[in-house]
Design brief:
The complex is a heterodimer of chains A (410) and B (649). With 410 residues, chain A is mainly α. Helices cover 66% and strands 4% of the residues of chain A. Chain A contains 17 helices and five strands. Classes of the chains: A mainly alpha (410), B alpha+beta (649).
C-alpha cells in the first residue's frame, strides 16, 4: 500500500463503512472506536481473562471445593483491574499520536521527579524503596516510567530525525541513550533490577530501530558478552550470584534438590512437567492446588497454566503473545511517523521483555528476577502499565497516517 | 515506496531481524516446554506425586495411672471439645461470640483464642484447628453440636483429654500434665539423637498431646507416653492434610503403658478427710513390702485445672494462698522432727556403747550447760530417768545428756542409716532430703566449728536438723521391722526409681526392740505422752508411737517465767507443729505412719489421734493386701484395662 495514496481509509475499513453507509470519521471518536482492531483487543482482554481464571484456580480450596476465603480476592482484584485497564487502553488508543508526543516530555519529567522522590520518601517493600504514598493511594513510579521513557525517546527521535533521508548522527543516539539511562539508574538504585533491565532493554531496542549503525550494535553485544564474568563477580549481590549458580546447575541437570534458593524453581519444574501434554485439567493441578509453588499468583503463574492445561495450554499462551508482538511490529512498520514507529517498538519491547524473561525464568532458563507475566500475573500497577502500552500500540495502529511535526524539542 | 537506503527501509529490515530473533527465542521456550512436558513429563509426574504424600504424626494415647487395686487415678477421658479452623472463619470474633451464646465462654478466653488465630495466620497454618474450649459439659456439647452445623469453621467433637478422677487426693503425687512449653521441650530433648528431635517437637505441638509437668506424670513421662504413629496422608505444601491414604498397621501409634502405684486410694481418702482442713502431711508405709499406702499433703490443688491450661488468675490464687496448696509437704516439706527424733539419738548412744538400758540421768526440768539453761518440756522435771522412761516421757534433759555422750557425728551417722538426709524420690518430683547436720557440714556450710550446745539441740530433734514426713515414716518402719532391710516404693508397676537407695545399713535388732518398747510405753503405759491414743478402737490391736513438737519460734526467758503461751494467745503461723510417728499392730507390726499437723501444737493432742484413725482404717480395710499388679493377683483381677470399677471398700 502506498503511503502517498492515502485516502483516509484502509480498504477494509472503507468496505465496512460503505456497507453501513456511514462515514465514521465524521462522527469523531465513535468512528475511531469502530475502526479499532477489535479482534486484537479481544485477544488482549481474553489473555487477561485467562489470568483471572488462573487466579481463581490459585485461590481454589480443593478440600472444601470452594474458593478459599483468604485468596478469593485474587481473581476479583484482577478482573477489576482488567476492567479499569481496558477503559484506559481504549481511552489511550483514541488519543492522536500528536498528543502522545506532546505529553512525552512532561510525562518523562514527572516520572523522573517521582523516581527521585521515591529515593527520599519511598515506602519500603520487599527490601527496596519502590512505592510512593500519595494520600490514600500508593504508586510505584518505576511502572509508568516504562511508558514515559518509551514516549520520550520516540518523541526525541521524531524531532531529531534528519529530513535529508539520512540516519541520525551519533550524538542523537547518545542523547537518546542518556534519556534511557537516567531513569534506569534511578530505578536500579531502589534497587529494582528487573525494571531497570526492562527500561534499558526497550530503550536499546528503540535506539536500534532508530537506525544506529550495526557496527555499534555488534560492538555493544560483544561488550555485553565479554563483561558477563565481570558483572557476575563484581556487580551481582551474593544472593543474585546464587540464583545464577542455581540456574546453571538446573540447566546442566545437576541435582539441586535442596530447599534453598532452588526450591522455587524445582517446584515450578515439577508442576510444569507434571502437566504433561494435555494438562491435569482446570482446578486439578496437584502441585499447584496444594501450594507447592511459591509466588504462584504473581511471577510463577505460568506454572499453574502449564500444569492444568499442559503443553497445549502453555504453547497456546506463548503463541498468543508471539502473535501480539508480531502484530505490533506490523503496526510499527505501517506507521507513517517516527514517533509512532519507535513508540510502538518500545512499548512492544517492554511487554515482550517481561513475557520472555518471565517464561524463561519459570522454565528454568533464566535467573529468578521479579518479573510478572504480562496481563496474567496478579499485581495492579504492572497490569495497568501493560494495558497502557497496548493503548499506545493501538493508537499507533489507529493513527498510522497521522503526520507529526518534526520541529522543536519542546 | 521509500528509497532502499532510507532509515524507513532500514527500520523495516531491522523489524525483520528482530522478528527472526524473536522466533528463535520462541523456539527456545517451546523447546524447553516440550522437554519438561513431553520428554521428562513422566519423571516430574512421579516427583509431584511423591511431593504430596506425607507421614503425619498420630499421637499415642497416654497410659493410665492406677492405684494398688487398679482404681484409675489418672486416665484418658473422652470429652466434647470445640475448636475453630482459622482459615475457614470469615469473622473470627463474630463466630466466637456466636459460640459464646451457647456455652460458658469467658471474655479472657475469647481474647486468647483470637490471638492464637492471628498467630496461626502469620504461620500460614490456618488449617490447624485452634481449641476454643477443651472440655464441654455434656449439655454444652449436645447444644453446640446442633448449632455448629450452621457455623462455618466451627468444629465440635469428642476428644481425648487427661483427667484425674480423684482430683485433689493425688495432686502432689501424680502432679499433672499440660501443653508442652519451650522449657518442657528443652528438658525432654536432652540426650536425644538429633534425628528424633524433629519428631519430638512435632509430637508435642499436636493439640492432643500433653507432657507431664509435675509429680509422677513428669517422672514417668517416658513410660506413660507411648510411641507416636504415622498416618499416610496427602498434604499440601504447608502440611495441611488433603486426603487420607491406606494405612500401614506397623505405623500405628503404640499407646503408653499403664502405671500402678502402691497407694490404696481409699486409705488416702480416709487420711485426707481426717485432717479436717488442717494443713499437714501423713505417710503410711506397709512394713512388709515397703509400699507407700497413703501419702497425704493438705491442702492440695485440683490437677484437672492444669490439664488444659490454668488461667493466670487461678494460678496466682493457688500460689499466694497462705496455706500453700502447691507445696508437697509429704515428700518436699522439711520440718524439725522434735521428739520423734529421740529414737535415733538413743540408738546412736546405744550403738556407741556410751549408755545402756540402766543408765539414768536426773531431770530437774532444766539443765545448765554452756552458760545457759536448757529446759525440759516438763517444768518440774521428771526425776531419775532411764532409757525406757526417757522415750516414754520424752524427757528432754535425759536426751541432752545422751546426745552429749553420743556426740554429733555419731547421731548424724545413725540418722543417715534411718534414711534421713536423703531425697526419697519414689517416682515423683519435688522430693527434698532435709538436712542432717554434723561437724563437717558446719565447717563447710558455715565455716564455723560445731558448738557443744548444738548437740543438745540436736538431741531433741531441733536446730539445723530438717526431715520430711516420708523420712519419719521410713524411720518408724525401720524400727518396727527391727532393723531389717527395707526398700520403700511408691511405683508398683512402672519405671525404675534408680535415684533411691535402700535402707539396708545394719541396725541392731536388740536396740530396735528397745525402741519399740519405749514407743509402746508412750501410747500404752500410764504416763506415756500419748497414753490415750494407744487403742486403735478395733477391740484389740494397739499402736506404738512417739510424739513430737517442732518449735516454730524461739521462746524467750521472760516468757518461760510468765508461762509459755499457746493456742489462741499467739498467731496460728507461730504455733508449734504437732508430730506423731507410729506403727501398728504392736505385736505384729504391719503399718508405719508419720503425721505432721502444721501449727497443731503438741503431737499427743492433735497429731496422735489422726495417726491412730488412719492406722485403724488401714488395718480395717486391709490396705496392705496383695495388689492388683502382682503376678498372683493378676489372675484374680483381669479387669485392669482402666474401666472405673465400683468403690471396693
Amino acid at each position: 500500500m502506498s503511503r502517498e495514496g492515502f485516502t483516509g481509509f484502509t480498504r477494509g475499513e472503507a468496505r465496512v463503512s460503505a456497507a453501513r453507509g456511514v462515514y465514521f470519521d465524521r462522527f469523531g471518536p465513535f468512528g475511531k472506536i469502530a475502526r479499532l482492531p477489535w479482534s486484537v483487543i479481544l485477544l488482549i482482554v481474553g489473555t487477561g481473562l485467562v489470568g483471572t481464571a488462573m487466579l481463581f484456580s490459585v485461590g481454589w480450596d480443593p478440600v472444601s471445593a470452594a474458593p478459599s476465603p483468604d485468596e478469593a480476592n485474587l481473581w476479583r482484584d484482577h478482573i477489576t483491574r482488567l476492567g479499569v485497564g481496558f477503559v484506559l487502553m481504549i481511552g489511550l488508543a483514541l488519543l492522536p499520536l500528536s498528543v502522545w508526543s506532546r505529553f512525552a516530555f512532561p510525562a518523562y519529567a514527572t516520572v523522573i521527579v517521582l523516581l527521585v522522590l521515591v529515593d527520599f520518601f519511598g515506602v519500603m517493600g520487599g527490601g527496596a524503596a519502590r512505592w510512593l504514598k500519595l494520600g490514600p493511594i500508593q504508586i510505584q513510579p518505576s511502572e509508568p516510567a516504562k511508558l514515559a521513557v518509551t514516549m520520550a525517546v520516540a518523541s526525541f527521535y521524531q524531532r531529531m530525525m534528519p529530513t535529508n533521508g539520512q540516519s541520525p548522527p551519533l550524538y542523537v543516539h547518545g542523547g537518546a541513550l542518556l534519556l534511557v539511562l537516567i531513569p534506569a539508574a534511578l530505578v536500579f538504585k531502589q534497587p529494582n533490577l528487573s525494571t531497570a533491565l526492562a527500561l534499558t532493554a526497550s530503550g536499546a531496542m528503540i535506539i536500534f530501530f532508530a537506525g544506529i549503525s550495526m557496527r555499534y550494535v555488534l560492538a555493544a553485544i560483544a561488550i555485553g558478552l565479554l563483561s558477563v564474568p565481570a558483572i557476575y563477580t563484581f556487580v551481582l549481590e551474593p544472593y543474585q550470584r546464587e540464583r545464577v549458580d542455581t540456574l546453571i546447575a538446573g540447566i546442566t541437570g545437576e541435582s539441586t534438590n535442596g530447599l534453598g534458593e532452588s526450591y522455587q524453581i524445582e517446584q515450578a519444574k515439577i508442576a510444569i512437567g507434571a502437566g504433561g501434554f494435555s494438562g491435569r485439567g482446570y482446578l486439578q493441578g496437584i502441585q499447584s492446588q496444594q501450594e507447592y509453588v511459591p509466588e504462584q499468583h504473581t511471577d510463577f503463574i505460568l506454572t499453574i497454566i502449564a500444569e492444568e492445561f499442559g503443553f497445549i495450554g502453555a504453547l497456546a499462551l506463548l503463541s498468543v503473545f508471539a502473535f501480539l508482538f508480531a502484530w505490533s511490529f506490523m503496526v510499527a512498520s505501517k506507521n507513517r511517523s517516527w514517533f509512532g514507529r519507535l513508540a510502538t517498538v518500545g512499548a512492544t519491547s517492554t511487554i515482550a521483555f517481561f513475557a520472555i524473561f518471565n517464561s524463561g525464568m519459570v522454565l528454568g532458563l533464566l535467573p529468578v528476577l521479579g518479573m510478572p507475566l504480562p496481563l496474567i500475573s496478579y499485581g495492579g500497577t504492572a497490569l495497568i502499565t501493560v494495558m497502557a502500552c497496548f493503548g499506545l500500540i493501538l493508537s499507533a495502529h489507529l493513527h498510522r497516517d497521522e503526520k507529526l511535526s518534526t520541529r522543536g524539542l519542546f | 515506496m521509500a528509497r532502499r537506503n532510507s532509515p524507513e527501509a532500514d527500520f523495516d529490515r531491522r523489524l525483520l531481524l528482530a522478528a527472526g530473533a524473536g522466533t528463535a527465542v520462541f523456539a527456545t521456550l517451546v523447546g524447553r516446554l516440550s522437554q519438561l512436558q513431553l520428554i521428562e513429563s513422566e519423571r516430574y509426574t512421579k516427583l509431584a506425586a511423591e511431593n504430596h504424600v506425607r507421614l503425619v504424626l498420630a499421637p499415642p494415647e497416654r497410659g493410665q495411672i492406677l492405684d494398688r487395686f487398679a482404681r484409675p487415678l489418672a486416665s484418658q477421658r473422652q470429652a466434647g471439645r470445640v475448636s475453630v479452623i482459622p482459615e475457614r472463619l470469615k469473622d473470627a470474633e463474630a463466630t466466637l461470640r456466636q459460640i459464646a451464646e451457647h456455652i460458658d465462654l469467658p471474655e479472657t478466653r475469647v481474647k486468647r483464642v483470637l490471638e492464637e488465630i492471628a498467630a496461626s495466620r502469620i504461620r500460614r497454618s490456618g488449617f490447624v484447628p485452634v481449641t476454643v474450649v477443651q472440655e464441654l459439659s455434656y449439655e454444652e456439647f449436645a447444644r453446640l453440636r446442633v448449632r455448629a452445623v450452621e457455623m462455618e469453621g466451627v468444629d465440635v467433637q469428642m476428644a481425648s483429654t487427661r483427667s484425674y478422677p480423684r482430683g485433689r487426693d493425688f495432686a502432689h503425687i501424680l502432679g499433672y500434665v499440660a501443653r508442652a512449653s519451650t522449657d518442657d521441650l528443652t528438658r525432654l530433648a536432652e540426650g536425644r539423637a538429633p534425628e528424633d528431635l524433629e519428631t519430638f517437637e512435632e509430637l508435642f505441638r499436636h493439640p492432643d498431646m500433653r507432657v507431664g509437668r509435675q509429680g509422677m506424670e513428669r517422672f514417668a513421662e517416658d513410660w506413660l507416653r507411648g510411641r507416636p504413629g504415622r498416618r499416610r496422608v496427602v498434604t499440601n505444601a504447608h502440611g495441611r492434610p488433603m486426603e487420607e491414604l491406606e494405612q500401614d498397621p506397623a505405623n500405628a501409634a503404640v499407646p503408653g503403658k499403664d502405671l500402678y502405684i502402691t497407694i490404696d486410694s481409699e486409705l488416702q481418702r480416709v487420711a485426707i478427710d481426717r485432717f479436717e482442713g488442717e494443713s499437714g502431711a501423713a505417710v503410711v508405709l506397709d512394713i512388709a513390702s515397703g509400699d507407700v499406702l497413703a501419702m497425704v499433703s493438705t491442702p492440695a490443688f485440683d490437677p484437672n485445672a492444669f490439664v488444659n491450661g490454668i488461667s493466670g488468675k487461678d494460678y496466682a490464687e493457688l500460689r499466694d494462698n497462705s496455706m500453700s496448696p502447691l507445696y508437697p509437704r509429704a515428700h518436699g516439706g522439711v520440718y524439725p522432727p522434735g521428739s520423734t527424733f529421740k529414737m535415733v539419738v538413743a540408738t546412736a548412744a546405744l550403738e556407741a556403747g556410751v549408755i545402756d538400758t540402766k543408765t539414768r540421768f536426773t531431770c530437774h526440768g532444766r539443765m545448765w550447760f554452756g552458760g545457759r539453761n536448757w529446759h525440759c518440756h516438763k517444768k518440774g522435771g521428771h526425776g531419775s530417768v532411764d532409757l525406757h522412761n526417757g522415750i516414754k516421757l520424752s524427757c528432754d534433759v535425759y536426751f541432752y545428756q545422751v546426745a552429749r555422750l553420743a556426740g554429733v557425728d555419731k547421731i548424724a551417722e545413725v540418722a543417715r542409716k534411718f534414711g534421713f538426709g536423703e531425697d526419697w524420690v519414689l517416682g515423683m518430683t519435688g522430693a527434698r532430703g532435709g538436712l542432717v547436720p554434723d561437724r563437717a557440714w558446719k565447717r563447710k556450710a558455715r565455716n564455723e566449728e560445731w558448738f557443744e550446745g548444738e548437740t543438745l539441740n540436736f538431741g531433741i530433734g531441733q536446730g539445723q536438723l530438717g526431715v520430711t514426713p516420708v523420712q519419719l515414716a521410713l524411720m518408724t518402719a525401720r524400727i518396727a521391722a527391727e532393723g531389717k532391710h527395707f526398700k520403700p516404693r511408691l511405683i508398683g508397676l512402672g519405671p525404675d526409681v534408680s535415684e533411691d537407695g535402700e535402707l539396708d545399713q545394719p541396725l541392731d535388732a536388740e536396740i530396735m526392740k528397745l525402741m519399740k518398747s519405749g514407743m509402746f510405753g508412750v501410747t500404752s503405759e500410764p504416763g506415756g505422752t500419748a497414753y490415750r491414743s494407744g487403742d486403735l478402737g478395733l477391740g484389740g490391736p494397739r499402736l506404738a508411737g512417739k510424739t513430737g513438737t517442732a518449735q516454730v519460734r524461739n521462746i524467750s526467758a521472760a516468757e518461760r517465767v510468765t508461762g509459755v503461751r499457746t493456742g489462741d494467745a499467739i498467731a496460728r503461723e507461730l504455733r508449734d507443729h504437732a508430730l506423731f510417728v507410729a506403727y501398728a499392730p504392736t505385736d505384729n507390726p504391719r503399718y508405719a505412719i508419720s503425721v505432721v499437723v502444721e501449727h497443731g501444737e503438741g503431737g499427743s493432742r492433735t497429731a496422735a489421734p489422726v495417726a491412730r484413725d488412719i492406722l485403724a482404717a488401714a488395718i480395717r480395710m486391709d490396705s496392705g493386701r496383695t495388689p492388683a499388679y502382682s503376678k498372683r493377683a493378676a489372675t484374680k483381677t483381669p479387669d485392669t484395662d482402666g474401666k472405673p470399677e465400683g468403690d471396693p471398700v
